[in-house]
Amino acid sequence: MKKFLIVLLLIPFFSFSQRKKDRDTSAVILQPNRIEFEKKRDGSEFYVVPGDKKGILLVEETLEASRGGGGYEWKLHMIDTALQIKWSQTLIIPSGGALLGYEYFEGRFYLLYSKNQFRSEDLVVYQFTSVSTDFVAYEITTVFPVDITHFESVGETLLIAGYANFRPVVITYNINDRIPRVVPGFYDNKNEILDLVVDEDSKLFTVIMSEKMRNKKYTVRVRTFTDRGDIIQDNLVNPGEKRSLLDAASTTFAGGLQYLAGTHSRKSLQYSQGFYLSKFINGQQQFNKYFPFADLNNFFGHLKPKREERIMNRIERKREKGKIKKFNYRLLVHKILQRDGEYIMIAEAYYPRYNYSTAGSSFGAYGGFGYNPGAGRTNPYFLGYKYTHAVVLGFDPNCNIIWDQTFKIEDIQTFSLEENVVVSASGGKVILMYLEENEIRSKIVEGNDIVEGRTFNPVKLSFESDELKSKDPSVEGLKKWYDETLFAFGEQSIKNPEGITGKTQRKVFYINKIQYDLNRQPN
Q1: pLDDT tens, 102-130?
Q2: Which long-range contacts (CB under 8 A, 24 or more apart) does 176-181 make?
């Protein structure tokens, strides 16, 4: 009996190993360089600030008290595009100070810190360049406490956005005159800041807001300013009487032309029922176009073939009756990409997970689309956001959808909503990638065609004799860098029996350079 049980237990393990082994790797993804930093204490944290071809600024928050007391050491390393250290620096941050944001703009790296945990209105920004350890510190006082949600820079101006007394506020700080200014027109309402978009070429910035209308529906307001905070245009999207616009991404304001893309709903403010696309010329709305999920060609392409077929059959039966099949999804919308007269919109589908318990028993439950926990379940415990797939669609200057694709997301769950999938375009092809469980997972599409299906490339280690012992899935990610180059980062525990680094075991924070060549023959 014992032998029989052992055989049964080995069968699923063997099958899983086979599935893992048989998965394809991408032929177009390369990993030419890697750098490691020893993680000496569990409490230290790393922050990565990409700076185009100027390199990467790596910031490490340590638990080491400064020798003079009154603060803690923060280690800074400037890394070039070959992942070689150009310089290192130590900052002393006062006790209670925290890193609130970081930014790169035209050769300058900015780190935004709070000076005191009890006075959120007192801030300091450190400005670095890639060439030396010299820095400039700007002390900023916002007068009133601000819960900061966005930190950007444009030209000679730093932008800080967030909420003061639950009301939106946007502050500009010019690094020459060093005077903070509150941008007018925000604090008098209770709208929500959706995004802050910077146009590096024209030195303009756009604030996207969610706004409640008189009919209790919601829409989107888009305001564009100069780097000094002078308003250029103020667009309020008219969604019609029966729809609410839940979110928005915006193109930059170029030559008076601006596009918005997001999701819409007729009733719920949590679940969207389709996409909308809007076009503005010199502040005048040209039109809104709405696209239900059922009208897209590949919206359900992440599902198993039989399930996708059943859904498509239901959509067709509804269509034959002159009706549209409705689907409800929660979507996190990314920024819009622009390429050669075409615009690319990206959104990630997710749902919140909860654990519900009752007196005398407890069990797990998944909060999904339209999910409603049964009577008697109490004390919900939030487990995080579970991501299911990414939706990518291309539209033309007249807001017509040209193509759409989906990309299945597995194993990712976060406690705050985060963008996971990185989308890059080269020529007519689009590559989608995300990092999870020490693997770069990718898919390449060209319009409605799939050039290379889902692939799995392990993160490359430093030495052939390295063995990955463990990794922290909560500390890893994939970010754009410059041109057709990205970087992966995370924490790993590695064993090396040969002791090449002087140790047989090491815990590191790593950065891997990732490049892709879509001209290579894919798998």
Answers
A1: 999 999 999 999 988 777 789 999 999 99
A2: 178/138, 180/140, 180/141, 180/142, 180/143, 181/229
- Tokens encoding 7: 């055989």
Give the amino acid at 254.
Answer: A
Residue 292's pLDDT is: 96
Confirm if 466 and 501 have CB atoms less than 8 A apart: no
H helix intervals, 265-304: none
Distance CA 115, CA 338 (A): 39
Contact (CB, 8 A) for 78 and 55: yes
Judged on CB neighbours under 10 Å (0-12, 13-18, 19+), 356 is: middle
- Total-model pTM: 0.88
Q: What whole-number distance in Å separates Cα of residue 68 and Cα of residue 65?
A: 8
315: helix, coil or strand?
Answer: helix
Q: In whole angstroms, what is the distance from residue 280 CA to residue 235 CA?
A: 8
Among 487, 492, 433, residue whose Cα is nearest residue 463: 492
Query: How many Cα atoms sit within 13 Å of 518 on the Cβ side?
Result: 20
The CA distance from 458 to 445, in Å, is 21
**pLDDT per position as a tens digit, 252-279:** 887 888 999 999 999 888 899 999 999 9
CB proximity list for 361: less than 8 A, separation 6 or greater: none
* Confidence band of 46 (pLDDT split at 50, 70, 90): very high
For 49-61, letters b (16+ CB in 10 Å) and e give bbbbebbbbbbbb
Nearest to 245 by CA among 228, 262, 230: 262
DSSP character string of 106-130: TTEEEEEEES-TT-TTEEEEEEE-S
* Residue 261 CB burial class (10 angstroms; 0-12, 13-18, ≥19): buried
Q: Return the number of other C-beta atoms located less than 10 Å from residue 431's C-beta.
A: 23
